[in-house]
Automatic annotation (TrEMBL):
Keywords tagged on the record: Hydrolase, Magnesium, Membrane, Nuclease, Transmembrane, Transmembrane helix
Swiss-Prot/TrEMBL cofactor(s): Mg(2+)
Protein's organism: Ligilactobacillus ruminis
PROSITE patterns: TRAM
All copies of domain TRAM, residue ranges: 296-362
Segments crossing the lipid bilayer: 34-58, 79-101, 107-128
Record flagged with keyword Membrane: yes
InterPro entries the record matches: Nucleic_acid_metab_PIN/TRAM (IPR052041), PIN-like_dom_sf (IPR029060), PIN_dom (IPR002716), TRAM_dom (IPR002792)
Record protein name field: Uncharacterized conserved protein YacL, contains PIN and TRAM domains
Length: 371
C-alpha cells in the first residue's frame, strides 16, 4: 500500500510538472515543434521522465517513510501534538517575516532567504515543542498523562493537589529484577500509578536474551515480575512509549523522564539514587526502606551465628545475619565454619549498611570458670 501511494505521488508530480514547466523549457531552449505545444504531450513527457526516476527513487523513499513511521510510533501522542503545533506556529511566523523579502529584486533575498528562514524557524519550533512539552500542554489547557484520558474534573486542575499528591512511580530495571516491588505493592504501601518506560522494557529483554545464564535468569525474573504486576492489577501499571534517542544511558533517560512527568523513581540502585538526588529528582530506594525496617540489635543481645571467613583485623571472624547484616566477631577466626553464640558489643551504621561487633559468649564463661 505504501509503495503504491509513493508511485501515485510520482505520477501526479510527473503530470503536473510536465504540464506546467515543459512549455517554458521548450521556449527557453527555442524548440518550436508544434507537437510540444500540446499540453497533453507535455504531461505525458513529464509522466515518462518521472516514471524513470521513480524506478530508482521509490525504494529509498519507502525506506525513509518506514523509518519515519517507526520513530513516530515510539513517540508519545502528546509529544507529537506539541511538536506539530510548535512547527506550525513557527512556520507562520517565518512566512510573516519572509513577506519583507519578497518585494526585493535580488534572487537571493526574495527566494533563497525566505526558504532559509522557514527551515530555521521550523527547526526552532520542533526543538521548542520537544523540550517545552509541559509548558505547551498547560498553554492549551491540557495535562500531561501517559496515554489514558483523564476525567474532566482532573483536567481542570492546573497544579498538584498539595504535597500528598500521588506522583507517578517510575520503575527501573534493577527494581524489577529484584522482585521486592511486587511484595511492596501487595502490602498497599505503594500508592499511585507505576510507569515502566519502553527503554527499561527493552533493557530487560536484552538481559533476558543474554548468552550468560545468570543474566538470562535475572532478565526473565524481571519480565515475570512485570507481568505479575500487570495481570494481578494490584496497582495501576502503565507503559511509557516515548524515548530519548539523544541520551544513550537508561539511567539518564529515566531521570529525564522523571523531570518531564514530575515523577518519583523507584529503585534499589545506589548510584542511580545518588545521581537522582543530585539532580533534584525524588527517589524511593527499596534498600533504604528495608534498612529502616530491620530489627534493632542492642548491645548485650545474644545471637547464634556461623563464622564463615576471616576479618580484616587479626583474629577477627566475620558472620552474617539472615538479612545480610555483617557481624564482626572478636577471636572469630578460631571458630571458622562453626555456629557459636555471640554477644553484641556495639553496632555501627554506615551509608553502605549496618555493621555489628560481637564477641563469643563462651569466652566470658571460660574466664569466669578460671576465676
Amino acid at each position: 500500500m505504501r509503495k503504491r501511494m509513493i508511485q501515485l505521488v510520482f505520477v501526479i508530480l510527473g503530470i503536473s510538472m510536465g504540464y506546467s514547466f515543459l512549455p517554458d523549457l521548450w521556449f527557453q531552449l527555442r524548440i518550436t515543434n508544434h507537437i510540444l505545444r500540446i499540453p497533453v504531450v507535455n504531461a505525458l513527457i513529464g509522466l515518462v521522465v518521472m516514471g524513470i526516476l521513480a524506478l530508482f527513487l521509490v525504494g529509498p523513499v519507502e525506506k525513509l517513510l518506514n523509518k519515519l513511521e517507526k520513530n513516530l510510533a515510539k513517540q508519545q501522542t502528546e509529544v507529537i501534538i506539541a511538536e506539530s503545533i510548535a512547527i506550525v506556529v513557527s512556520l507562520l511566523i517565518a512566512v510573516l517575516i519572509s513577506t519583507l523579502f519578497w518585494r526585493s529584486q535580488l534572487f537571493f533575498i526574495n527566494t533563497v532567504l525566505p526558504i532559509i528562514t522557514m527551515i530555521l524557524f521550523a527547526y526552532m519550533g520542533w526543538f521548542f515543542g520537544r523540550t517545552r512539552l509541559n509548558d505547551l500542554m498547560k498553554l492549551f489547557g491540557g495535562r500531561l498523562n501517559s496515554g489514558n484520558r483523564k476525567k474532566e474534573t482532573e483536567a481542570v486542575l492546573e497544579r498538584k493537589a498539595g504535597d500528598n499528591f500521588h506522583k507517578y512511580k517510575l520503575l527501573d530495571t534493577n527494581i524489577l529484577i529484584d522482585g521486592r516491588i511486587y511484595d511492596l505493592a501487595k502490602t498497599g504501601f505503594l500508592e499511585g500509578t507505576l510507569i515502566v518506560p519502553n527503554f527499561v522494557l527493552y533493557e530487560l529483554q536484552y538481559i533476558a536474551d543474554s548468552g550468560d545464564s545468570i543474566k538470562r535468569v535475572r532478565g526473565r525474573r524481571g519480565l515475570d515480575i512485570l507481568n505479575k504486576l500487570r495481570s494481578e492489577k494490584i496497582v495501576p501499571v502503565e507503559m511509557y512509549e516515548g524515548d530519548f534517542e539523544d541520551i544513550p544511558e537508561v539511567d539518564s533517560k529515566l531521570i529525564k523522564l522523571a523531570k518531564l512527568l514530575d515523577a518519583v523513581i523507584v529503585t534499589n540502585d545506589y548510584n542511580l539514587n545518588k545521581v537522582s538526588e543530585f539532580q533534584n529528582v525524588q527517589v524511593l530506594n527499596v534498600n533504604a526502606l528495608a534498612k529502616s525496617l530491620k530489627p534493632r540489635v542492642i548491645p548485650g543481645e545474644k545471637l547464634n551465628v556461623m563464622v564463615i571467613k576471616n576479618g580484616t583485623e587479626r583474629q577477627q571472624g566475620v558472620a552474617y545475619l539472615d538479612d545480610g547484616t555483617m557481624i564482626v566477631v572478636e577471636d572469630g577466626r578460631y571458630f571458622m565454619n562453626k555456629t557459636i553464640e555471640v554477644e553484641v558489643t556495639s553496632a555501627l551504621q554506615t551509608d553502605a549498611g549496618r555493621m555489628i561487633f560481637a564477641k563469643p559468649v563462651h569466652s566470658k564463661r571460660g574466664i569466669k570458670e578460671k576465676n
